[in-house]
Design goal:
- By secondary structure, the chain is an alpha/beta fold.
- The protein folds into three domains: 296 residues, Rossmann fold (3-Layer(aba) Sandwich); 198 residues, 3-Layer(aba) Sandwich (Rossmann fold), CATH 3.40.50; 127 residues, Rossmann fold, CATH 3.40.50.
- The chain contains 25 helices and 22 strands.
- Strands 12-11-13-14-16-15-20 form a seven-stranded mixed β-sheet, with helices on both faces. Strands 2-1-3-4-8-7 form a six-stranded parallel β-sheet, sandwiched between helices.
- Helix 1 crosses helix 2.
- The radius of gyration is 28 Å and the shape is elongated.
- The structure holds thiamine diphosphate.
- Thiamine diphosphate (TPP) binds next to strand 5.
Length: 688
Amino acid sequence: MFFKPNVEDENMGLEYKFSCTSPLEKAFEKMLLLRKTESLIESLLESGKIYGPCHLGLGQEAVSVGVIDCLQNEDAVFAGHRGHNAYIAKTNDIFGLLSELGRKASGCSRGYGGSTFLTNKARGFWGTMPILSGPIGAAAGVSFGSKLIGRGQITVVFIGDSLAEQGIFHEVLNFSSLYRLPILFVCENNGYSCNVKINDRQPARSIVDLAEAQKIPAISTDGNNYFEVVKATDRLLEICRSDDGPVFLEAKTFRQSSHTGFVRSKDIGVERDCDEIKYWNARDPIVQFKKVNCFNDLHYWENLEVKLTYKISNFLDRTWKAVESKSEVDPKEFYGKSLSDKVELSSIENIKFRPEVFGNLDKKNHTYLEVLQDAIQEIIQADPKVLIIGQGQSSPWDSGKWVAKFFKEFDGRQIFETPVSEAATTAVGIGLAIYGLRAIVTHPRFDFMLLAMDQIVNQAAKIHFMSGGKIRVPLVVRVQLYRGNGQGAQHSQSLHSMFSHVPGLKVFMPAVPTDVSTLLKIAVYSDDPVLFIDDKWLHDWNNFMPDQTDIDPINPGPRCICEGTDITIVGIGYTTRLCYEAALELKAMGIQAEVFDLRVLNPLDCQLIVESVKVTGKILVVDMAWRNCGVAGEVLAQVFEHMSSIQKPCFYSRRLTLPSTGAPASGVQESDFYFDRKVILEEVMKGF
Ligand SMILES: Cc1ncc(C[n+]2csc(CCOP(=O)(O)OP(=O)(O)O)c2C)c(N)n1
């Protein structure tokens, strides 16, 4: 069903009003509306009136209109980079689309997304995403969320044929089939990826085979024939709605335009095949619609086409004029700035934590691990909207240890064991988060989490920005950092610096046990994605538990854990423990070290550290990770940027980091590779 605008819609006065009332004529009118809108965009591109890449859907209208005609209003739609058709078919928001292409503040993503990031959740269109691997996983997450909440909603995701060449495709199909998600995958197979034919990219088998191999019912159909698309979609949706499992449609079609832009005869530097274009033009979806439907009265449909074309063209002229009159995005306004500046928390007053929301003070004499276990149990029990998904959650060892005590109680309700699919699991977490749940995705190692880098950096960290602030991603990615134990170079990497580089992603790395509880709660109730680093070498730490009642949930920066005036020492994760122990020894030697736990790596606020260096004139930053382009260097840089305000000259500044090599697998080499408290003491003494 087409979306019916309600009174709250922003662009109501600019709606296209359909003339046709019979379903067939209306479908025809919709296809023409899509065609004419894309043609207008093509000419606006040519005249330079709109900016940036546009992947036009000319020639592929029957797929979007056919599929979306079979949906209910409340069903959710995602699409990829070539998403204009699906956007219009689901929302009828042509003003929002054209404004977005014109980078106007009135755009559906407020001018921050452009052609490839369109969103209008109020009308059931959740998003297009320019990275090919984006929409499929987020759609699976929304579908998972709707299944858990029991809304009976179907999620549809439009993908291109090249996605079958990407790992995420197979991971998401596997995940969706396993959890029997109510999702319809629509592969618009137009035979090309940029200028490369499908036969040069994939072996001779059907894309449908890939879905069937995952036990997903699938149909391949003529995507240029509206009636065939509707027939296939109806059949698949019937299965999906009754059986609650995923279904797959391959719609064979052809794009009449080039990959991007307005020159139809060219595709990324090569001429397109004229015979092929001619062949497909004869099978144009609008031509086919008239032919199939003419009942020997082609004349009637051609007349209707002329009338509708006139009406649509007038509407588009008016709409583009309205768009031109709107102001462009404010060049000085960046949502990203506020993203990296502070934590924004959702209303949490209904969630009862003990003894208060932030800062559990009853955790004395417990280890880091015990505090972590207690905190996650408290969160899960207090809030049914919090979900944990990830590898190893059902195992009481390693990654699942934090939920082992209560796993059975919440298994399949709030805690889910997942396949070994880092990218899909993270993508599903993103979908759950944008659906409105509080998702915690957990990864057993940083090393494995690299397979989800795309989802974390390209999707989770960007969606709020690219949607012009319209979509929030309240996702926690909990990663376990585990070193040593002979695990070697692919199971021991501390990659916190790499992730701290990314705006839009907050990075928490608590060390002090009390903070573990507090920061986990802040992470879960932050409206933006947070990487929460669980440092396994701290799990048994219980000998230092100062209360901190004044933690600022909006700006939880570094924390001073030991006061002193002779040298400033900064620890990061596990090294905070070593620095603290070193400070106790230094005290006995008459040196008063001021020790900080950096705690929050992004946003990084070094103000307290700067103040300390003003007094001590000496700083040592200790990071059990690589030196080059690392957080330790960033802390020193921030201190030096404030040098002018440092009264006493800073005559000693050092970093203690790991050697620039992979972690060894041999125990003997490990004890040389990882430094201990004594090495910190030696470094400190160089400053005296
Ligand atoms: C992960 C990723 N790799 C590469 C690209 C660059 N890219 C954008 S569109 C495209 C072709 C996609 O082809 P297909 O999926 O068949 O969709 P079509 O463009 O034909 O509609 C490519 C390679 C990208 N956006 N994302």
